[in-house]
Design brief:
The chain is α/β, with parallel strands linked by helices and 278 residues long. The protein is 42% helix and 14% strand. It is built from twelve helices and eight strands.
Length: 278
């Protein structure tokens, strides 16, 4: 029986997934396949490295630094969120809270990272072969939110956030041979995405990246369709949806420490659901 896990990310709401994975580390729950979108990919690689509490520190402490995300960053180089600071200065082997890359690599768990090719608007699935010690460009690409950031280039190709092209990669998870899947959402399970905000952002990037803009315009429909598919699988016992009952008004980049901490604790508590499912 091959069990996979999906973390859909969601900026600072990803603290919920961090709580789920910290619970899993406490109980030594392992998965046979992992796939992360945006902040979800950062959660997962710390999980594979068995670094409990690492992501909690990033969400509740580091995210409040102006170097992490701020108007100052945006005015400097049009990157509100400094991906190089997060997945470079903080995460490299000589950083303030290094990722234990050797431990993550030694886990030998297949791991996909979803990003969106800005040139064609299609999902691209990086894997562990695209990650090396102090080279976490795949995670940077997956976490690059349009309008908030300029596209992030990997091997000459510009990428945006993976949530644009495959927000809930349930199909990919089963294509990779999973029999059962734990799906971690960072919004309530019955949340339905609407296209209005995506349309505004699509207009901002349409001239330079028309295919990425089109993917943005289709994102709400894709999210809702993939969520509906996950719920159908759930009825047959093949999917467990782990989602917060409430997000306390948290948006993607809301700097509210108490709300972030509350989401983390909800995730840690809700991780208990995984035990019976496994």
């Amino acid at each position: 029986m091959k069990t996979g896990v999906i973390d859909v990310g969601g900026g600072l709401r990803g603290a919920y997934g961090a709580g789920v994975f910290d619970f899993c580390m406490d109980l030594k729950i392992h998965f046979d396949y992992c796939i992360g979108v945006s902040a979800g990919s950062a959660n997962i690689i710390s999980f594979l490295a068995n670094q409990k509490g690492r992501n909690h520190t990033f969400y509740t402490e580091f995210s409040f630094r102006k170097e992490y995300m701020s108007l100052h960053n945006y005015l400097k180089d049009h990157n509100y969120v400094d991906l190089e600071y997060i997945f470079g200065e903080l995460s490299n082997s000589d950083g303030e809270f290094p990722l234990d890359y050797p431990a993550a690599a030694a886990s030998y768990v297949p791991f996909n990272i979803v990003a969106t090719n800005a040139l064609n608007g299609q999902a691209h699935y990086f894997d562990m072969s695209d990650i090396e010690q102090d080279d976490y460009d795949a995670i940077k690409a997956s976490s690059c939110v349009p309008a908030v950031n300029k596209p992030f280039f990997v091997n000459g190709i510009p990428y945006y956030d993976g949530g644009i092209s495959d927000p809930i990669p349930i199909v990919k998870c089963f294509e990779e041979g999973c029999d059962k899947v734990v799906l971690i959402l960072t919004r309530p399970r019955d949340y339905q995405r609407t296209p209005q905000k995506d349309e505004v952002i699509a207009r901002l990037i349409a001239e330079e990246y028309p295919h990425a803009a089109m993917a943005l315009r289709n994102r709400a429909e894709m999210y809702n369709t993939e969520l509906a598919l996950a719920k159908e699988y759930e009825k047959t016992g093949r999917v467990l949806i782990v989602a917060p009952d409430d997000i306390g008004g948290m948006r993607t980049l809301t700097k509210d420490k108490s709300a972030i901490e509350e989401l983390y604790l909800k995730g840690f508590h809700d991780g208990e659901k995984i035990m019976d499912f496994m």
